Amino acid sequence: MHEVSAKLSDARLSPQKARLVANQVRGLSVDKALNILAFSPKKAARVLKKLLGSAIANAEHNQGLDVDSLSIARIFVDEAPGFKRSSPRAKGRGNRIVKRNCHITIVVAA
Asked: What is the pLDDT of residues 23-44, one digit of tens each?
């Protein structure tokens, strides 16, 4: 069983929101997953669709695998370092805002 992966580092979206979409396509065949991602309105779906296309291209070009037999073996979303910003509050104080980022990894297998 051949496994091929594609990885996206520092995606500019929160891990929690990316996991919602990743859970929908986990374990599916690539054609079903691409169909679900194409019609999902979420930003994470656009990012995952592009990454899944990269994983499919890696499997076809680097390993010579048949695209029709591929399925998503593993997909996981890890937290990346966030951008730290501050927001002004009353009486001269400030609040910390963390703009969260994530690392996404997709592994497809034949």
From this structure: 999 999 999 999 999 999 999 9
CATH superfamily entry for domain 3-109:
Ribosomal protein L22/L17 (3.90.470.10)
3-class SS at 48?
helix
Residue 30's Cβ-count burial label (10 Å; 0-12, 13-18, 19+) is buried
DSSP 29: B
Residues near 68 by Cβ (< 8 Å), separated by ≥ 6? 31
Q: How far apart are CA 44 and CA 103, in angstroms?
A: 12
Question: Model's pTM, two decimal places?
Answer: 0.89
